[in-house]
DNA sequence: AAGTTCTGTTTATGGCGTACACACGGTGTA
DNA sequence: TACACCGTGTGTACGCCATAAACAGAACTT
């Protein structure tokens, strides 16, 4: 079952889709390992996730894990997809506009990261996405496909919002993790940095903001950032909508149009795009 | 010189400000170690930065470093401040509006991270900021203090933009690092993931975007995100500006005003805020 | 019944940060 | 001048990590 070695991403694909899934038997299994990994990371963060500790938690030796999982990185991939399947995703109804739907997706991602903070800590490129992660991505993409944005813009919007959620979650995770390890709260620690604060005078803006209490009653970084981000995206969508008939490109996907439709008010690159525009208009979505 | 042990952040403060700086002598020195660390991280990423390798590069034993630096984490703090001093910061003139100035800061941060990709990889809370980092922060804050935003909003805006830059830089770093280590380019790797792509049919939005070439000609994530972010911030600033006379709070900092200035069109919480508003109007900045 | 495969264990390698005891040279004091 | 001290660099050692390789027993196949 583990013939493909750690080097082989195709093997991870098989594991993610649970191919060759044996019915539950006593002893180790992929699911048990993944679940133990999730529990451990929930409790101790991604840095605390070691093969030793996962094995210990299950009552087996370290190396026994390698019979079911190629390695630590792949275990993390599996854990990500595991927890991505926990809730369906957004909580916005289909009738809502793109903004409500995209915001719901962002909040769903935020919730997920509050349940499993280590998600935001996952680093490194080339993670093989599993079915649950793909489903979430698909859903997020679908929130903004009917907005007049080009395909590349749709992808960019979803990536931007996704990385924003990750970035803000990471902020909290790192604070919490440091607090857990050191036993000293964030405020206590900064409160003790007198020798540092001494040096901050002479920076006029910083001290003025400090004196005005800007650091005492901060904005919620997630709420604040999400609002700004959605506003920025809304502006783009409005621009695309207002200039929808003037551009030379396809009204739907922005791709160049072979024969610029002279006289005709709207230009499509393909029949499928024309169809989509029609459906969009008749569905009456924003 | 290293009496304060690794536990003591005040010691790091002293090191960051180079207190007790001996004149250059042969042998090891804090500066030499920090510079070697920067070179190493530039070449091999933050994961490749080990005390052993830094020492090796300098021709000393590993433990010799600990005579000058409390530990690896603190070395990283020192490295961050070192490179933060490389360029003054933004390249926008003082006469420009907030948007040009904030954008220049963001681009300066982006440039810095392109020169030193490991900056984006630095993780963990409670990093003691050094003089150069504080100077950059001060400058970034000053770009949006004269916009009518509340102090908390100013701080939130700067944090948001800062984390955005980090997040986008991290995206590139991780791709480049994986490519460097594996010897396989991003495109080649994804190109070989046939068994994964097979499973993507059935996700209609995803496949449509794929067929429309959205993944082939992607938006530049940094440029795209920066534009959206600044647009969103601009909207907030406009809102604050338009409602500047209606709110009960201070026009400048938003803090509550003791005696709501009845009849008077503008309310200030303090003389300094009134003064700032005056200067702002006469300076004619946006 | 014999062979093969699947599963878990044992042992070992090489990397990491860093605690601790030590060695050596220069400097200040008796 | 002698001696103690301190700043600086070294050598050894510990405990953690991922994982390669060889092995042992059970289960299933033929």
Write the layout of secondary structure elements.
Two copies of one chain form a homodimer.
Chain A: H1 9-16, H2 30-44, H3 51-58, H4 72-84, H5 98-115, H6 131-142, H7 151-182, H8 186-191, H9 194-197, H10 204-211, H11 221-242, H12 271-283
Chain B binds a DNA duplex (30 and 30 nucleotides) through residues 1-2, 6, 27-28, 50-52, 60-64, 66-68, 71-72.
Word description of this protein:
Chains A, B: InterPro entries: Homeodomain-like_sf (IPR009057), HTH-type_TetR-like_transc_reg (IPR050109), HTH_TetR (IPR001647), Repressor_TetR_C (IPR004111), Tet_transcr_reg_TetR (IPR003012), Tet_transcr_reg_TetR-rel_C_sf (IPR036271). Chains A, B: This is TetR family transcriptional regulator. The structure is a homodimer of 286-residue chains. Chain A folds into 3 domains: 76 residues, Homeodomain-like (Arc Repressor Mutant, subunit A), CATH 1.10.10; 110 residues, Tetracycline Repressor, domain 2 (Orthogonal Bundle); 42 residues, no CATH class. With 286 residues, chain A is mainly α. Chain A is 56% helix and 0% strand. Chain A has 12 helices and no strands. At the A-B interface, helix 1, helix 6, helix 7, helix 10 and helix 11 of A face helix 1, helix 6, helix 7, helix 10 and helix 11 of B. Chain B binds a DNA duplex (30 and 30 nucleotides) through loops.
């Amino acid at each position: 079952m583990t013939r493909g070695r750690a080097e082989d991403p195709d093997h991870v694909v098989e594991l993610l889709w649970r191919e060759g899934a044996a019915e539950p038997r006593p002893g180790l299994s992929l699911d048990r390992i993944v679940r133990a990994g999730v529990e451990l990371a929930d409790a101790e963060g991604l840095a605390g996730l070691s093969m030793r500790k996962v094995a210990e938690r299950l009552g087996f030796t370290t190396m026994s894990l390698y019979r079911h999982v190629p390695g630590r990185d792949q275990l993390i991939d599996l854990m990500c997809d595991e927890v991505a399947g926990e809730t369906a995703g957004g909580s916005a109804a289909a009738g809502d506009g793109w903004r409500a739907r995209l915001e719901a997706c962002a909040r769903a991602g935020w919730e997920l990261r509050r349940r499993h903070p280590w998600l935001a800590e996952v680093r490194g490129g080339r993670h093989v996405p599993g079915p649950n992660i793909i489903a979430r991505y698909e859903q997020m993409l679908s929130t903004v496909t009917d907005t007049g944005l080009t395909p590349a813009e749709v992808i960019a919007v979803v990536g931007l919002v996704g990385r924003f959620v990750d970035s803000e979650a990471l902020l909290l995770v790192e604070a919490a993790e440091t607090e857990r390890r050191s036993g000293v709260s964030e405020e206590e620690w900064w409160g003790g940095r007198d020798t540092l604060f001494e040096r901050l005078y002479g920076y006029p803006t910083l001290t003025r903001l400090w004196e005005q209490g800007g650091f005492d009653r901060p904005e919620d970084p997630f709420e604040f950032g999400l609002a700004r981000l959605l506003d920025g995206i809304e502006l783009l969508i409005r621009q695309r909508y207002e200039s929808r008939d003037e551009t030379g490109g396809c009204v739907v996907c922005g791709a160049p149009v072979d024969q610029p439709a002279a006289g005709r008010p709207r230009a499509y690159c393909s029949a499928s795009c024309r169809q989509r525009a029609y459906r969009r208009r008749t569905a009456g979505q924003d």
